[in-house]
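sry for the spam today, last one i promise. struct tokens for design, 240 residues
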């Protein structure tokens, strides 16, 4: 067993680096795209809102695995993609297809999470900001979006964990992340339970780190809601 651990852990940890990169790039791209879709849903334009709703329905209503297969195996069948260098560069390699599919998929869920957060901000807050002379963009950047992010952060933390777990499907399109290396080790050692138990433990540790980071960010953003204690209570009357 110890020999198996010594053989498996270094290779699975090299796969962890790929998993972290897939998760980070997908979350970064998906968050910005999801924010744009959320704003489109809340805009006064029927065309923009309809497009964002259709996008969300499409990507949330189809499995991520099917989307991965369509991007990696399906789009390469079209001649215009093979004949366009930029598109062929994007779709000809598994890790790039995985990032694209994960980003587009999580953008659909992120848009709904952020839309809920934006809708939770009272209209009076925006009106008060505009009454103080702020433009709509300035009020959104300084007041509305920070408040919405605080409301949406717990749900978005769950979405980050889903991205990390969804990255395991990238192994089906030749990407050697944690699960990809685990499959190779399984075929070499035939220790199916042991190898995937170690892989599962690595995923668990990674998700615990993600959860801790989100909770720390939430703690910092919500520090104004915590009751004053000790020196803070004593200092409050003096400041007044």
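last one done:
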């Amino acid at each position: 067993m110890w020999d198996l651990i010594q053989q498996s852990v270094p290779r699975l940890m090299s796969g962890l680096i790929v998993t972290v990169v897939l998760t980070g790039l997908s979350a970064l791209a998906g968050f910005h795209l999801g924010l744009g879709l959320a704003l489109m849903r809340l805009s006064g334009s029927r065309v923009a809102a309809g497009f964002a709703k259709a996008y969300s329905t499409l990507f949330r209503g189809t499995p991520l695995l099917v989307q991965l297969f369509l991007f990696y195996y399906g789009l390469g069948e079209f001649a215009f993609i093979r004949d366009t260098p930029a598109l062929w560069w994007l779709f000809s390699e598994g890790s790039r297809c995985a990032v694209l599919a994960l980003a587009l998929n999580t953008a659909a869920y992120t848009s709904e999470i952020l839309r809920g957060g934006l809708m939770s901000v009272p209209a009076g807050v925006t009106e008060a900001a505009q009454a103080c002379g702020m433009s709509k963009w300035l009020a959104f950047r300084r007041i509305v979006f920070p408040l919405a992010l605080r409301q949406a952060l717990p749900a978005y933390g769950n979405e980050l964990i889903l991205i990390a777990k969804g990255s395991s499907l990238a192994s089906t399109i030749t990407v050697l992340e944690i699960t990809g290396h685990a499959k190779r080790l399984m075929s070499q050692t035939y220790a199916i339970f042991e190898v995937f138990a170690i892989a599962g433990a690595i995923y668990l540790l990674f998700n615990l780190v993600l959860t801790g980071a989100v909770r720390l960010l939430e703690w910092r953003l919500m520090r104004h809601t915590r009751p004053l204690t000790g020196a803070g209570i004593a200092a409050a009357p003096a400041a007044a």
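Residues 116 and 167 are 25 Å apart (CA to CA). ok im logging off now
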